[in-house]
Amino acid sequence: MQKKHYLITGTAGFIGFHLAQRLLQEGHSVVGFDGMTKYYDPRLKERRHAILSEFGTFTPVIGMLEDKAVLDKAASYDKPDVIVHLAAQAGVRYSLENPKAYVDSNLIGTWNMLELAKEHRPEHLLIASTSSIYGSNEKIPFAEIDRADEPMTLYAATKKSGELMAHSYAHLHKIPTTAFRFFTVYGPWGRPDMALFKFVDSILRGQAIDIYGEGKMSRDFTYIDDLIEGIVRLMRVMPGENNRVTNIDTLSQHAPFRVVNIGGGQPVELMKFVETVEQAVGRPALRNMLPMQQGDVPRTYAAPELLEALTEFRPDIPVAVGVQKFVEWYTSYLAEVEIR
């Protein structure tokens, strides 16, 4: 296998950490860029980077996406063959509290990354998007060719805007670009603001868990290993006419640009998810039933056919298996050192 140089943003984050670790284990070199922001406890991010730093081919660079000079420094270490832009201000609900963070990171930061790609000409640029851009679409499952023009939060609006900006750069500068839409990713080293982390933490502490929407929502959960497999396989599929997939493809007619869901198409009802967590933890949860929060959507449901057609892969790790692995990680490591 040819060894490549990767520039990945967000390597101290949940997904970026796992992707960088996979590529480093395969013998590639990775320059990892991260802002170490305080959206959640930076100590968790520092531990992720510490693990990656055990590889001699990992180079960490700390800085904000809004700082183009620091991004340029990151790209100067190794001319990147592939750029994967994962860093972003995440969180649907936090966008109601601090919208400027989303404009700075997800709009200005993404524009800086596109400028970087224009200057360095990677063989493939991959950009993270989200299932949140589908809003409250009533047509299910959510297919990439469906309209996604009614975002319910600023977070979703900034991610859709990132897709549009990336398309324009792919067209103007002929940069092969793939944007992938994530569906509720979970697993070891996950974010503390995500439901699974909160549920496990609260159950173990004997505290009530908040269940929004009266438990009537559903989510298409994607275990982290499945997500990383999907990303790695998509890296090898540069958008172009030689790999167009008939009527389900989003390959642009004007640019080497494509949007792809990474999700298994197996949504799970929230109450079933809670029961799965209870079984993995080994004790029942105290349940605090609440109305749906502002910005929430009733369901997410990926159409995985395009991903499978391009990569011969679709996420299939059952939620029960993934939740058990998360609980084992949490109880054996995170709970012991009490990082929050």
UniProtKB/TrEMBL annotation:
**Species of origin:** Hylemonella gracilis
Q: Does the keyword NAD belong to this entry?
A: yes
* Keywords of this entry: NAD
Q: Does the keyword NAD apply?
A: yes
Query: Where does the source fall among the domains of life?
Result: Bacteria
* UniProt signal peptide: none
Q: What is this protein called?
A: NAD-dependent epimerase/dehydratase family protein
Q: Which InterPro entries match?
A: Epimerase_deHydtase, NAD(P)-bd_dom_sf
Instruction: Report domain NAD-dependent epimerase/dehydratase positions.
Output: 7-248
